[in-house]
Fold each of these.
Amino acid sequence: MAKMNFGGVIEEVVTREEFPLEKAREILKDETIAVIGYGVQGPGQACNLRDNGFNVIVGQRQGKTYEKAIADGWVPGETLFSIEEAADKASIVMCLLSDAAVMSVWPTLKQYLSAGKALYFSHGFAITWSDRTGCVPQEDIDVIMVAPKGSGTSLRTMFLEGRGLNSSYAVYQDATGRALERTLALGIGIGSGYMFETTFQREATSDLTGERGSLMGAIQGLLLAQYEVLRENGHSPSEAFNETVEELTQSLMPLFAQKGMDWMYANCSTTAQRGALDWMGPFHDACKPVVEKLYASVKCGNEAQISIDANSKPDYRVGLEKELAALRESEMWRTAETVRQLRPENN
C-alpha cells in the first residue's frame, strides 16, 4: 500500500499501480461473482467487472429492472438469474440491493451463504445497524465492502472514459484468510481509481451524514434559501438562478474540483475573494451546529430507523414521488430547465 499525506495526516491507500488489474484477475480467477440487485450500483459494478474479464452473473427479480439487465447484455439462464439462483451459484455474493430491500431479502439470501463464500456490500448500513435490519451474517463467511464515492452511473461513465472513481474498503469478517485480497481485487475490478480503508461503521455514518449534509440535503437548503432571498428582493428568476446555481455548477465547481478552494478564490475577482473570505466564517458558524446535530442523529441510529420506517411503507414510492415532484415543480428547478436549454452546448 502507498503512504500518502492527506493534509498532514499519513494514510495508506491502494492504487492501480501497486494492485494492477492482472493481479485482481489472478486472485479471483476461480470465483463466480453474483451481483444481487440491478438498481443504483448494480449496473455499473456488474458491467465494469464483466468488461474487466471477471466471471460475473446477475441476480434480479422479474420486472423493469430485469429487462434493463437484459438490455445491458445479461442473458437469462446464462448470466442472468433469479436472486436465489445467482446466490447459490456464486462464491462471492455482491449485495447491491437498497437498504430496505436487503432487509426483506436477507432471510432468503442468507440460506445460500455457505462456508467460505464472501458477502460483499457497497454500504455499511445493513451491518452497522444489524439490530434494526436483522442482517447478521454467519461466522464462516467473509463479510467485505467496497464503497464507490459516487453513483453507479458515475462509476460506469468514468470507467468508459478510462478514469476511476475513488472508493473506500473494509473487512468486517475474515473467515477464509482471503477477505482482504478478495476485497481489493473486487475494488480494482469494479473500476476504483484508488481505495482508502474504513470500517463498516465509519462508512455508514459518514455516508449518511454526507447525503443529508453537503452532498444533497444541505446544498438544496442553501441554494433555495439564497434563491428565495434574491427573488423576495426583486431579482428575476433567471438572475436569481444564475447567481445561485448556474455559476456554481458550471464555472466555480470545476475550478475547486481541479485544484482546490484557494485556487478557485484566486481565479475570481478581488471583490468576490474579499466577500468569500469574510462570509465563510459566519456560514461555518451557522452550519456546524446543524452538522453536529445531524451526525449525532446518524451515529445513534435515529436516521437509519427513519429510513427503515419510511422505506418499508407499502405506499413509500407514491409518497416519495410526491415529494420529488414538489421539488421538481418548484420555481427554482423549473427555471433550471430553461437555463439548461440556453447553454451553448444545447443549441
Amino acid sequence: MPEKMRAVVKTKAAPGAELIEVDVPTIDPDQVLVKVKATSICGTDVHIYEWDKWAQSRIHVPQTLGHEFAGEIVEVGSQVTKLKIGDYISAETHIPCNDCIQCLTGQQHICGNLKILGVDCNGCFAEYAAIPEIVAWKNDTSIPPEFATVQEPLGNAVYCTTVEPVLGKSVLIFGDGPTGLFAAGVARVAGAALIMIVGRHPVRLEIAKKMGADILINGHSDDVEAIVRTETGGVGVDVVLDMAGTQVAIDQGFRLVRKGGRVSAFGVAAGPVQLDLNNGVVFKGVTIYGINGRLMYDTWFKVANLLKYKRLDISPIVTHTLLLEEFEKGFSLMMTRPKISGKVVMFPEQ
C-alpha cells in the first residue's frame, strides 16, 4: 500500500482547488479504504470549487473534494463485518448517526446529525478514499465504473420521480441539469405517458430527448405555460418534478400541476422563495414531497437493478470522461454557459 496519493484538494478559502500529494487515508475501525476507479463531478462540487456563500459557510479547508465514485476495497477496518477486500463499491453520501429519531424510524437519509461525504469530511477526488461501512454499497461487477459512479445522483432522480407511481401519468420536469435528465429517463422506464422538460440549454435538452422526453421546452424562449396547457387540454400535469429550485420554476410548477396532482421538490433555491399557498396548494389539494438524497436503501436497490438489467441507458448523460489530473477542465466544462456537459467522470488512472 502506498503512503502517498494524488488528490484534488480545496487548499485555501478561495475559488479553485489543487491536485496535490497527500497521505493515503488511515481508516477508522468502522471504515474501508477504497481504491477509486472513477469519480464524477456534482453541482455541489462546483459550489465548493467556486467558493460561493454556501461553501464558505460549510467547508473547512484543507479538504479533499468529491462524493460520487466507484472503486475497489483494498483494506477493511477491524469492526467491518459485511465487506471484504476486493469488493466493488460506491457509497451513499449521506452518513447517518443511527441514533437520532430519524435514523431510528427509517429515515436515515435525513438524519438529524447528518454528515455528507466530501462536504463534512474528505471526499473521493483522489486515488484512495476512506468510506464508513454503513454507507458502502456493493456494486454488481457488470456495471462499468463510469455508470456506477453516478448512482448517487441517479438515485435522487429515482426517489424524486417514483416517490409515487407515474405509470400512465403526465410528468413535467423543471431543470435540465443531470438530475433532471436522469428523471426524464426514469419517468420513461416507470411508464409515464407524457414527459415534458423545461430547460435552458439546447445541448442538455437534446440529451433529455434521448432519455425519453416527449416535449422539450426552452424556458428562455418558449411560452412554458401555454405549451403545457395545450398538451394537457388545459387541465395541467399529474406530476411536477422541480429540479431547478428557482422562483420562476416554483411559480410555474404550482400553476401547471393539476388539481389533486403531485409536486416533488428537489431543486435547492439560492435563498427564500415565495409560494401562493392558497391557489397553488390548498385549493388544489396538491401533495408536496420534499426530496433530500435517496431512501436508504430502497432507492439504491432500484437504481442498481435498473443498471444491472439494462432497463435504463444513462450513457447519453455521461458526456465527458477525463483523467483526474484534468480536473480543472472538468470543472470548466461544468461551469460553461450555455451548458455543454451532462455528467463529467474522472479516472485516477488511465
